[in-house]
Amino acid sequence: MVTGRAAQYAHEHGVFSFTSVSVHEILYGLELKGATAQTQRMGAWLGRNNEIAPVPADYTGAASIRARAARHGATLEMADCLIAAVALRLERPLVTGNTDDFRAIQNTGAPLVVDNWREPRR
Fold this sequence. Notes:
Number of domains: 1
Strand order of the largest sheet: 1-2
Number of helices: 6
Distance between the termini: 13 Å
Number of strands: 4
Mean pLDDT: 92
Shape: globular
Structural class: mainly alpha
CATH architecture: 3-Layer(aba) Sandwich
CATH topology: Rossmann fold
């Protein structure tokens, strides 16, 4: 399902967009596992796509998101809040398999659109 959705997205848009925070998380996970060849392949693939760096306002937005979530009883990592802040600023859907944390952000009233390519389309 993920492969098909990714292929369709690539066909429609040409490149994928990732926050630099997401790039860090992906490469960190691969490095932690010692997956050297996969890390190199992923790094090369990421380099052919669009990396979006957070701007100063995204950090402010992330702090607000994190505080609102905490008031709603959710403990979120700064990285997820920053990724969400970038998606909100750019008014883009956030594609993830980590729906729990991002649903917690939606529960604060943030108009974040979350799309899990592991789930069938609705």
